């Protein structure tokens, strides 16, 4: 898809030697951005019309989790609807949804697909589509509970839709690996295969407790580039950081390279303090072939962005792969 507007961007600060760097005006979306919200984080954006659209996780002041549509001309300044998305029946009868959180969005063929963590007797992966971010059609859940972090590929692979996910438990899961599943029709999912496991503690401790797919993968000259979160269980609880993996173009269950060093870990004030301290949680990436802008939830409270050059990210992972 060709971009009609530039992706958000800021050059690397002179004194910065990191592969990826934060936007100087982070967070871009504050916790009280809409009247009902307690926090807005772990949200996803895509190019749309002459700007961008997104699906945002806004927890309200009863701390109920739901998803809201939003629009932006520049990807930084957002108008988020004050009411949550109301779903209509898609490829099945309406199914229950006790809560919705951590959305991802991707354009495939002729429409935008949304995946999220859907409360159906516990967390699992909900799927919906929209053409205009006004009307949304909810489809079958992809998996049995419990599952989180469902991330679709932007094109069919060998004729089938493909989705990454992380089987989990009903709580603050102390384990988690990334799997891939395939579907001929966005309704029935199977051929579940393991893609990536947690890292051994002694090799790369930031990702030794659980890992989960983060951003919709995009194609590079080396294969699919996907940002993911990795978690370590510290004496003060979980700490969420971000790495990236390169998956084989034709057979994405095969990991070619994977971050040993994290690309972004909680260090800025808005990542270290919030409703859940020490969380960097990537959910979307905008790219123009050279540059990438990653959207991530910070401390389960606000939305922030970080930037990088795709070639530099790939080179750094290849040079120091797990
Ligand atoms: C996960 C999800 C995410 C959250 C993370 C850190 O289990 O609930 O939404 O960002 O924990 O609290």
Overall pLDDT: 97
Q: Determine Rg (CA atoms, Å).
A: 18 Å
The distinct ligands, each listed once, are: beta-D-mannopyranose
- Name the strands of the widest sheet in spatial order: 6-10-9-8-7
Explain this structure.
With 322 residues, the protein is mainly beta. Helices cover 4% and strands 47% of the residues. It has 2 helices and 22 strands. The strands form 5 sheets. A 5-stranded mixed sheet has the order 6-10-9-8-7, with no helix packed on it. Strands 15, 16, 17, 18 and 19 form a 5-stranded antiparallel sheet that branches. A hairpin with a 7-residue loop joins β18 and β19 (255-258). The model has no long low-confidence stretch (mean pLDDT 97). The site of beta-D-mannopyranose has 10 residues, from β7. Residues 42, 101-102, 172, 240, 276, 279, 281, 297, 300 line the site of beta-D-mannopyranose (BMA).
């Amino acid at each position: 898809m060709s971009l009609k507007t530039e992706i958000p961007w800021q050059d690397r600060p002179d004194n910065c030697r990191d592969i990826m760097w934060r936007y100087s005006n982070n967070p871009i979306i504050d916790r009280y951005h809409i009247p009902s919200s307690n926090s807005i984080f772990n949200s996803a954006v895509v190019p749309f019309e002459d700007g961008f659209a997104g699906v945002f996780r806004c927890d309200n002041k009863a701390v109920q989790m739901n998803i809201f549509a939003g629009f932006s001309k520049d990807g930084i300044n957002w108008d988020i609807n004050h009411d949550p998305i109301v779903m209509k029946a898609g490829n099945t009868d309406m199914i229950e949804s006790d809560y919705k959180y951590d959305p991802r969005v991707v354009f495939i063929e002729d429409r935008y697909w949304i995946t999220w963590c859907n409360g159906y007797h516990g967390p699992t992966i909900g799927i919906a589509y929209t053409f205009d971010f006004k009307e949304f059609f909810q489809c079958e859940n992809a998996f049995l509970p419990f599952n989180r972090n469902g991330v679709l590929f932007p094109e069919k692979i060998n004729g089938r839709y493909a989705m990454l996910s992380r089987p989990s438990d009903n709580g603050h899961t102390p384990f988690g690996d990334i799997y891939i599943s395939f579907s001929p029709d966005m309704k029935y999912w199977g051929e579940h295969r393991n893609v990536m496991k947690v890292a051994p503690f002694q090799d790369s401790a930031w990702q030794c407790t659980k890992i989960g797919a983060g951003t919709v993968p995009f194609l590079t000259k080396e294969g699919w580039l996907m940002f993911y979160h990795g978690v370590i269980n510290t004496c003060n609880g979980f700490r969420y950081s971000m790495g990236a993996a390169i998956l084989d173009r034709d057979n994405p269950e095969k990991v070619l390279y994977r971050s040993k060093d994290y690309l972004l870990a909680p260090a800025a004030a808005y990542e270290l303090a919030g409703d859940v301290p020490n969380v960097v949680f990537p959910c979307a990436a905008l790219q123009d072939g050279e540059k990438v802008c990653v959207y991530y939830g910070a401390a389960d409270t606000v939305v922030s962005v970080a930037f990088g050059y795709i070639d530099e990210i790939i080179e750094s992972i290849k040079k120091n792969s797990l």
